[in-house]
Each structure stands twice: as structure tokens, then as C-alpha cells.
Amino acid sequence: MQRAVVLGGSFAGLMAARVLSDYAEDVVIVEPDCLDDASRTGAPHRRQLHALLAMGHTQLERWFPGITKEMTTQGALVGRGEAVQFYVDGHRRLPLEEVEMLGATRPFIERAVRLRTRGLPNVRIIAGRGQGLLIQGKCVRGVRYIPNGQQTETTTLTADFVVDAMGRSSRLSAWLEQEGWPVPPLDRMTIDLGYATASFRRGSELPGTVIAHSAPGPASDYQPTLCEPGALAAVEDSRWTVVLAGYAGHRPSRDPQEFRSRMRRCVQPLREVAEQCELESDVETFHFRESRRRRFLAASRLPGGLAAVGDAVASINPIYGQGLTLAALQASALAAYLRSGAAAHEPAWGYFQRADVFVNAGWNLSTTADLAQPHVIGPYPRGYALMRWVGDKITQASLQDAEINRAYMSVVHMQQHPRALARPRVLMRAARVLLAR
Ligand SMILES: Cc1cc2nc3c(=O)[nH]c(=O)nc-3n(C[C@H](O)[C@H](O)[C@H](O)COP(=O)(O)OP(=O)(O)OC[C@H]3O[C@@H](n4cnc5c(N)ncnc54)[C@H](O)[C@@H]3O)c2cc1C
User: Which UniProt key words apply to this protein (predicted)?
Assistant: First the structure.
């Protein structure tokens, strides 16, 4: 390809640009926000704690070899085994040596990815806001955008391939409709989730801990009665980033005192930070109203030369920490599609089919789990009651048995498809563990 354009220069856009740099002479990222500004407005959720799942970390290293080393040299941490602690209903899972997680803030990770992407000789970033697609005949031929500093006058940028990485508020569907193309159906699930994140000074407390994550499970019927849901990460600049989450009437506020007292009702690592560490930031809140997924494969037609990545495809309940990993996996799916010899001007069905495997897995996993909340009213998938029952039993068994825990966590970390948990061997073992108890 001569030129590929990526609309949106956040995490998913940068990953896509990295992949496209292997296939296009010129890769242009169009992004309205000043990306180097820590308080940029384009993606306010970036200030919340972001955990990168083990598969996301693997993918990051795949596309940017040595990036972990670069980040740890600058203060990020890497944890595995005892350093990564997952709790369910206050009960700690067995540690896993093979699960490696990064302790760093989202702006820090994104900056490392941006520096590496921008350093590629054929990638450049233009400050501007995408305004529409240029479609000729059956395929996309470029984009229209307003350069920063101008009010309304649009500029045209021709391209052989365009990627939508404009996040969950992407206007791509509206643009397609304007041009007379069908709109990909949008799935939605209202979850009314509240997030609150704050930073604490990190000292000698909790030696060796990088990540601690606490979630309610079957013993509390997924309610915060036994333990507050929350997480902490040891991050750059000798800080702990702590997040608390709650649904509907239990959404956390910006009040620092409330934040600390909720931390005291959480698992031991969060309690210890609440007791011992100095708060170093305001409490930042974020209201995540609904999960959304655009089903591109269900559109009857798509113009050639167009793909979408990241939250522009699916923006899922952040509690499961899947967003960055899905974006990284989509970059790999894009690479596999382009490597397969597909012509840039054809509809990118092959890309969407590949990406659909894990986007569906992430969506199904999170929406099925969210239906355990009484205020979440659907839509219910077929066979939900059985899925929930089996899911609860496997979760219970995974808290007692090392092998099931390993299989379970490999699904949580997106290293395996959720169907790995439906294998007869896993089901039989779970039944044996629970019956023995
Ligand atoms: C509260 C919260 C906590 C989260 N925690 C985690 C976590 O722990 N782990 C995890 O993996 N994921 C987490 N996520 C999900 C993760 O943040 C997203 O999946 C991720 O930001 C997706 O990246 P993106 O590049 O697709 O979109 P975004 O990061 O939203 O970026 C979209 C970009 O598009 C730009 N843009 C918008 N309009 C235009 C336009 N017209 N033209 C050009 N550019 C445009 C914006 O300026 C922005 O830079 C969390 C999300 C939330 C809301």
C-alpha cells in the first residue's frame, strides 16, 4: 500500500499503525488531542487504573520487542507468581509463575508505545479531527479531517486503507450512513458502573507485590458484601495506583475519606495501603454506563479498505481489564489479514472474522458475568441459567484446585478461549473437586 490512515492515536490506533508500517509506505495517524499532554481530554478514562492482562503483555512485546525492559528501566514493574494476587470473595487464588503482569499507569504504557511507533521511519502523526470518509465506488479512498487550529475547513487525505481507532464514541457508523452504506448493528448492555482511582506514595509496605485484584464471586452472589471490589498496582514514580469499583447505588465518589474507608473493607493489600500510605492525588471518578459492541460482520456490505480496532469495535465493562489486550490482539489479527495476501481495496471481512473470535469471547465473558448484577436487565443470551450455574461451579473449583485455577486464569488473561473451560477434562475435574469437598 502507498498510504494507510489511522483515525485516533490512542492505544489501539498506535498498535494498528505499528502493524500497518509493515505494509504501507506511509502511515498517517490523525489525532486531535495533544498526545504528550498527560491531562489530554480525548480519553479521560486513561487516568483510571489500567491492568494489562498477560496476553496483552505478550502482544506488546511481540510488536515492540524489548519494550518491557525499556519501561522497567524507567520505573515500571513486572510481577509474576506471588507478586500478582487475585482474590475472589476475599479468598486468594493460588499464584501462577507463568502469568506475568506489568505495573505501570496507562499514560506511561501508552507513551512507551507512542515513542516506539512514532520512531518508525514511515509513521507520522497529524494533529486533526477526522470528519468523514472519502468513498469512491466500492471502496474507501481516504479521509476528510479538520487540522487542529482550523474551525470548519476540511482537508482531504487520500489512502489505500483506513482504520477507525476513534474509541467508543467513533462516528464511523454515521459516516457510513451518510454515504449510503449499511450501519453495523450496535449491541448494548447497560451496567451503570462507577470507577474511582487515586495514587498513594509507595514505600516499603507490601514487599514484592505488583498487582492485587479483588472481585466478588459466587459466595457473595457477586455483591460487595464480603469484600469491596478493587485493585492496586505498583507503578512508576514509586506510587500505588488504587481503583475501587461499584455498580448503581454503590458507585464510589470523589471523597478521599470515603475512598480510604472503602479500601479498609477490601483485601489485605488495599487495607495496608489505606493504613500506611499518603494519598498523592485527587480521587478521579469515571461513570461507565454501558458496554457496547459494533458487529461489523453483521453488516450486509462494507466498503473495501476499511477496518476498525479497539473501543471503536467493542468497549466492554473495564472490571475485566480486557480493552488494551483486545486492541493488541486486533493489531495481530490485522497483521494476519494483511499477511494473508488480501488486497487493500477489498472489504476486510477476513480481518473482522479473525478479530471476532476474541472480541466475542471478551464480550460474552463480561456480559454473562454482568448479568449476575440485579440491576442489569439483559439482554440474556440463550442458555444463560445453565452457563451461569456451570460458571459458578468452575469458579468455586478454581479456588481449590491448582489445575483448574491455571485453566481459569488463562481464560481471564485471554491466553485461551473461554471454551477451554468447557472441555470434558476440566468439567470432570471440577466435579470431582467439588464433590470431594
Ligand atoms: C474506567 C476504565 C477503566 C479501564 N481499565 C482497563 C484496564 O484495566 N485494562 C484494560 O486493558 N483496559 C481498560 N479499559 C479499557 C481501555 O481503556 C480501552 O479499551 C482503550 O482505551 C481502547 O483504546 P482505543 O485506542 O480504542 O480508544 P481510546 O483510548 O478511547 O482513544 C480514542 C482516540 O481517538 C481519538 N479521536 C476521537 N475522535 C476522533 C476523530 N474524529 N478523529 C481522530 N481521532 C479521534 C481520541 O482523541 C482518542 O485519542 C478501561 C476503560 C475504562 C473506561
Answer: Plasmid
Task: Measure 10 CA to ligand 1 centroid, in angstroms.
Answer: 6
Q: How far is the CA of 403 from the centre of ligand 1 (A)?
A: 34
* Residues above pLDDT 90, as percent of the chain: 95
CA 206 – CA 356 distance, rounded (Å): 40
Mean local confidence (pLDDT), 234-238: 97
List, in sequence order, every residue forming a beta bridge with 377; answer none if it has no partner.
none
What average pLDDT does the segment 26-32 reach? 97
Q: Do 214 and 231 meet the contact criterion of CB atoms below 8 Å apart?
A: yes
pLDDT digits (tens, 9 = 90+) for 279-311: 999 999 999 999 999 999 999 999 999 999 999
Sequence-separated (6 or more) residues with CB below 8 Å from residue 347: 138, 301, 302, 303, 304, 306
> Ligand 1: residues within 6 Å at CB?
7-13, 30-33, 42-43, 45, 48-52, 129-130, 165-167, 195, 286, 288, 310-312, 318, 321-325, 327
List pLDDT tens digits, range 160-178: 999 999 999 999 999 999 9
Going along the chain from its start, the domains and CATH numbers come out as 3-49+111-187+292-369 (3.50.50.60), 67-106+190-289 (3.30.9), 382-436 (no CATH)
Q: Tell me the pLDDT of the chain averaged across its residues.
A: 96
Long-range pairs, 70-76, Cβ under 8 A, ≥24: 70/112, 71/102, 71/104, 71/108, 71/109, 71/112, 71/236, 74/108, 74/112, 74/236, 75/104, 75/108, 75/235, 75/236, 75/237, 75/238, 76/102, 76/103, 76/104, 76/108, 76/109, 76/235, 76/236
User: Which residue type is seen at 133?
Assistant: L
C-alpha 215/C-alpha 226 separation (Å) is: 10
The number of the ligand 1 atom at minimal distance from the alpha carbon of 197 is: 1
